[in-house]
Amino acid sequence: MSLFKKSEAISIDGPAGSGKSTVSRRVAEKLGFAYIDTGAMYRALTLKVMNEGISFDDEEKITELSHDLDLKLIPTTEGKCTIRVILDGKDVSEAIRELGVTRNVKHVARIASVRKNMVKLQRRMVSNLDGAVMEGRDIGTVVLPGAKYKFYVDASFDERVIRRLKELAAKGKVVTREEVAEDLKQRDHTDKTRKVGPLKKADDAIFVDTTDMTIDEVVDEVVGYMRNSLR
Ligand code: CDP
Q1: Which of 10, 46, 68, 200 is 20 to 30 A from 109, alpha carbon to alpha carbon?
Q2: If you measure from the C-alpha of residue 230 to the centroid of ligand 1, how many angstroms do you get, rounded to a whole number?
Q3: pLDDT tens for each residue of 70-111
Q4: Nearest alpha-carbon partner for 14 in 152, 124, 117, 174
């Protein structure tokens, strides 16, 4: 689709279970843009901190790691348009989704100097690309405040719990509804109350409530909105 200038970045923010990742991947696929999952970046750094046995209190060491992070997000055509995450030359795409990483990512994501390095890296990634859909928590507000198209996707809490349960079940993970609800509740809280780069809708972002929408409908709404704004 050559309608949209490839130099124009698209930001998609929202909480866990909002459908953000699937929608971002599908929009990128539809437009022929690259897809950048910034959550995968915070997850990869968290995994590295855990693997190296560094204390989550050691902000200096974690900042150092974030500065020299050897991280690649490689697009792959396996299944859907998705990415492989390569950390220090090793494929950690599955490892970064483990529960231990999910629970600990908040310790890393709250450090201001770490976020500063991550934002720098994320901006560099976009500037080296010919068109990107970047998803996360602070993309429209901090990383790419000048993005031409900004979206904030959300859904009711119950719907997000159901989606996350299905996602985990599809991966063969046995977790209770209560565990998933507790994880989402805690992550919503830490993501929204973090001092630096909290999860927040940018004033100029389009809000999409995906509660009663299928993924196709959300993708159509996002791309449709972009098309209309060209008129
Ligand atoms: O896929 P899911 O919604 O579970 O989370 P994710 O997008 O992989 O992000 C994992 C965690 O990384 C989030 O809960 C945030 O705490 C953090 N994160 C962040 O601080 N800033 C971003 N731009 C993206 C993620």
Answers
A1: 10
A2: 31
A3: 999 997 766 544 789 999 999 999 999 998 999 999 999 999
A4: 152
- Predicted structure pTM score: 0.93
CA of 191 to the centre of ligand 1 (A): 8
- Burial of 129 per CB tally in 10 Å (0-12, 13-18, 19+): middle
Tokens of 190: 């830490």
List of domains in the chain: 9-213 (3.40.50.300)
Contact of 76 with 92, CB cutoff 8 Å: no
State the distance from the centre of ligand 1 to the C-alpha of 37, rounded, in angstroms.
Answer: 9
Query: 90: exposed, middle or buried (C-beta count within 10 Å: 0-12, 13-18, 19+)?
Result: exposed
For atom 4 of ligand 1, the residue with the nearest CA is 16
Q: Is 84 in the pocket of ligand 1 (CB under 6 A)?
A: no
CB distance 44 to ligand 1 below 6 Å = no
Of the pLDDT bands very low, low, confident and very high (cuts 50, 70, 90), residue 1 is very low
What is the C-alpha separation between 213 and 92, in angstroms, rounded?
Answer: 32
Q: State in Å: Cα 220 to ligand 1 middle.
A: 24
Q: What is the pLDDT of residue 192?
A: 96
